[in-house]
């Protein structure tokens, strides 16, 4: 099957939001070319044969980002492109810079779609313990304590390069002690569920509103035996979920976190922690306010570029 590539020229800070818009519109895969990603790469050995590469020699964007969604060839472009364009422009009303917000479409054959992003995606050490590796790379851990997470980035976003994903992985590394029950809301690629299991979490359940994301997560979970028992499901936030767990994680936009807050409070055990990211500067105060109003106690807040990550907990009986 051939595909239609819908490309959105945007800003680095809007990458995850645009990725979500494309996936929600029916994209069967998302490719990200973000100038910010190259700021984290250094000259070194990459690839199966250890070729020495200087990222400065690799053609890439010098500023902003291009997010490309791959749609079935029969998608109705006269409606699709204007709709996506309007949605991207509207991101400004949510405090996100849409950048140029240019939307274009072009045909692409199946073989190119399957390999186009591989030249941009290399092993990435995200935290002291966690390294994300594309499934096609041979990789040897540098230390015994290093935990390797294998991903195929072709079907959903959340590959560890974006600040919001990194903030959440760092937060999980801080809070997981072993055996915790966890719900991953808006799982995307499944990277946070895999991270949690690699760090020693117990029962993990992951939800996403989009079936494409759930299929992508299922594939990535299969690449990581440690995550073989993660339960996956299609669900809108925590609608209809009534079970108390130790941890809830959500790397989604602030506007979606706000209605999730009371659901998270209900579904956490006393003392349970709520880890959130996807919060742009302009929305951080709103999320803090809603968390506190619900009864959460904010434990810590971290920031990377324009993005915030918050760890809060549901009070215990002694704290109420």
Automatic annotation (TrEMBL):
It is found in: Cytoplasm. Its main location: cytoplasm. It catalyses: L-lysyl-[protein] + 3 S-adenosyl-L-methionine = N(6),N(6),N(6)-trimethyl-L-lysyl-[protein] + 3 S-adenosyl-L-homocysteine + 3 H(+). InterPro entries: Ribosomal_L11_MeTrfase_PrmA, Ribosomal_PrmA_MeTrfase, SAM-dependent_MTases_sf. S-adenosyl-L-methionine binds at residues 165, 186, 208, 251. Pfam families: PrmA. Keywords: Cytoplasm, Methyltransferase, Ribonucleoprotein, Ribosomal protein, S-adenosyl-L-methionine, Transferase. Gene3D superfamilies: Vaccinia Virus protein VP39 (3.40.50.150). GO terms for molecular function: methyltransferase activity. Its EC number is 2.1.1.-. One of its GO terms (biological process) is methylation. One of its GO terms (cellular component) is ribosome. Belongs to the methyltransferase superfamily. PrmA family. Methylates ribosomal protein L11. This is Ribosomal protein L11 methyltransferase. It comes from Limosilactobacillus panis. The lineage of its organism: Bacteria, Bacillati, Bacillota, Bacilli, Lactobacillales.
